Amino acid sequence: MESEKQRERSGPGWHPCAECDTDHPQSPEAFHSPPGWVKDAVFYQIFPDRFARSDRLAKHSSLEAWDDTPTVHGYKGGDLYGIIDKLDWITDLGCNALYLNPIFQSASNHRYHTHDYFRVDPLLGGDEAFDELLKTCHDRGLKVVLDGVFNHASRGFFQFNDLLESGPASPWADWWHITDWPLRAYDPDEPAGYQAWWGLHALPKFNVDNPEVREFLMSVGEHWIDRGIDGWRLDVPEEITADGFWEEFRTRVRARNPDAYIVGEVWGDASSWTGGDRFDGTMNYLLTGFILRYVGGHRVVDSVVDSITYEVRPPHDAGGYADSVDHLHNMYGTDGLQAHLNLLGSHDTPRVITAVGNDAQTVILAALLQLTFPGAPCIYYGDEIGLEGKRDPDCRRGFPWEHEHSWNQELLKATRSLTAVRHAHPALRTGTYRRLWPPPGNYGNGLYAFERSQNGERLIVAVNSGDSAESARVPDVAGDHFETLWGSEGINRDGDAVGITLRPRSGAVWRVVG
């Protein structure tokens, strides 16, 4: 129960203190800065219906077989208790934060069609399962970030369902953008009569200019923060154009928890969104595309990646990739990049291994770049074992727990070892970045190298995406001795420079020790 003092002093600019039962002013720097824990996070993204079934919930007879190819509307029965059962897997992988696709009551397996924003879907175990999951994760030191879908609801959302039943007389009519009566919510061959996300009749768009709607959505954000979540991943935020909406959302959420992470789904340049007044970071699909263009190259399968909204073609050589990385640093700054969510794939993209023609070594090189880059890496469930899949719904397959023989053990081992290196060396998380090779204007090769350094620790990371061995003589690198932390030998002092040589399709991380 809140004290009177807390009620009086809660709100923008204040945050609660459990030790003295009062609130303290939040500094402007803290409000505009990302939470400190994000730079040390390695996220694991879970699509709840497809990760793990538990035996604590009765399962409906109409569920799809777990290992069958997923369909658009079918359910497989994964639940939150299943996630609890597999937390050892997640922590052993080196992940210390979860990003969950929507968990609120919905009439879809992906739950982006929200029915009730204040209730966890009973098929996932309901609020009881969520509370247990959250407590268990926090007891283990895992953060939990939920998916927030605030641009649109569903035909089953109460205020819209009332509109369908009552027509213009509905008290909730001005919660929506009505363009024509009567509404045709279930006839895809006719105009819906209201604005909907991408014109899909099932996803009516909120009228966020309505103060009641705005307050409702703000209250959802506050409610789950008060319940203990560690942040929000925000779905299609660019489509909410109401003036000051996201600024208010940040103010109110961060007032409840100054360490709440707010990350937006912005696929392109998000520099105008991540200046400290709206989001801490974005889902860094720009980096995704750059990585796959470099290490994937001609292995990227055109028919698999057609129509995705980030660029994975044409191929990059090392110079093109290095220039792209420089562009990201210029766009966001190294400090700004530390709060982005860096991913190789998600529920909205083809599986990374399928996108690169089932070449596991490409995925390993991609993971090396992802896990040594500034920002929070995010592993989409199953990518660590080479789970395949084309565009959704195929990229949302059930995790093949009963088919360990199908797992790519080399990829799993590489993922675990790379997360361990990242956790062991702060320079990979918060250190400065310096491009070593190739120098600007040098193109046509596959060897790329950079340095991450912090508090006297200097690490060199190198990747050769080419099909033949490559070498470089890199000037202006101090140090005479190098310890291999991951990957191959291939570095030595060469007079006034450092010589780097890598086998085809390989990479390495070295620590400068002298």
Instruction: Give the overall silhouette.
Output: globular
User: Which runs of at least 5 residues are low in confidence (pLDDT < 50)?
Assistant: 1-25
Strand content: 15-25%
Separation of termini? 58 Å
Overall average pLDDT: 93
| CATH C-level name of the largest domain | Alpha Beta
**Percent of residues in helical segments?**
25-40%
**What's the helix count?**
16
Largest sheet: 8 strands, parallel
Return Rg in Å: 24 Å
CATH architecture of the largest domain: Alpha-Beta Barrel
The largest beta-sheet arranges its strands as 10-9-8-7-4-3-12-11
Count of distinct strands: 20
Q: Structural class, from helix and strand content?
A: alpha/beta
User: What is the total domain count?
Assistant: 3
Q: How would you describe this structure to a colleague?
A:
- The structure is a single chain.
- The protein has 514 residues and is α/β, with parallel strands linked by helices.
- The chain has three domains: 4-150 and 204-424, Glycosidases (TIM Barrel, Alpha-Beta Barrel), CATH 3.20.20.80; 152-203, Alpha-Beta Complex (Oligo-1,6-glucosidase, domain 2), CATH 3.90.400.10; 431-512, Immunoglobulin-like.
- Helix content is 29%, strand content 20%.
- It has an eight-stranded parallel sheet with strand order 10-9-8-7-4-3-12-11.
Briefly, what is this?
Helices cover about 30% and strands about 20% of the residues. The chain is of the alpha/beta class and about 525 residues long. The radius of gyration is 24 Å and the shape is globular.
